[in-house]
C-alpha cells in the first residue's frame, strides 16, 4: 500500500461524510471537505508521479474515488434543491454509460482502456468548479448572477460531449 493509495482511500471515505454534510445543509463543512478532497487528489497524483509510487491499484481506485465524489455531490445537491435535477441526471448518466461500456467490453472479452481525453479533462474541471461554486454559494453567499445558467449549460454541454467522445471510441473499439 503506497502513500498515494492511502490518500485516495481517505478521499473515498470522505464521500459519505460530504453527502451527510450536504443533506444536513452544513454547507461550510461540505465545501471545506470538498476542497480537501480536491487537494488530496492533486497531492496523491503528484506523489505517485514524482516519487515513483504509481500502482495498478491506484490506477483503478483514484478515478473511482473521483467519480464517487462528483456523482455523489451532484446527486446530493439536486436532492436538496441546490442545483437542478436535470444537471445531476446528465452527470450521473455519463458516468453510468462509461462504466456500463467498460463492463460490457470486459464481459465480451474485449476490454477497453479508458484514457482521459481533452474534452473529458475539461468536463471534469467544469464539474468540479460548478460543484465548488454550488457549495460555496450556499456556505458563503457567493453568487454568479445571471452567469450561473451559462455555467450550468457549459457543464451540461461538456458532459454530453465527453460522453459522446467516449461512446464513439468505445464503438470503434468494439467494432474493430
TrEMBL record:
Transmembrane regions listed in the UniProt entry: 6-23, 30-51, 71-104, 150-171
Membrane topology type: Multi-pass membrane protein
The entry's keywords: Lipid biosynthesis, Lipid metabolism, Membrane, Phospholipid biosynthesis, Phospholipid metabolism, Transferase, Transmembrane, Transmembrane helix
Biological process annotations from GO: glycerophospholipid biosynthetic process
UniProt-listed PROSITE patterns: CDP_ALCOHOL_P_TRANSF (PS00379)
One Gene Ontology cellular component annotation held by this UniProt entry: membrane
Gene Ontology molecular function: any one: CDP-diacylglycerol-glycerol-3-phosphate 3-phosphatidyltransferase activity
Family: Belongs to the CDP-alcohol phosphatidyltransferase class-I family.
Protein name as catalogued: CDP-diacylglycerol--glycerol-3-phosphate 3-phosphatidyltransferase
Organism placement in taxonomy: Bacteria, Pseudomonadati, Pseudomonadota, Alphaproteobacteria, Hyphomicrobiales
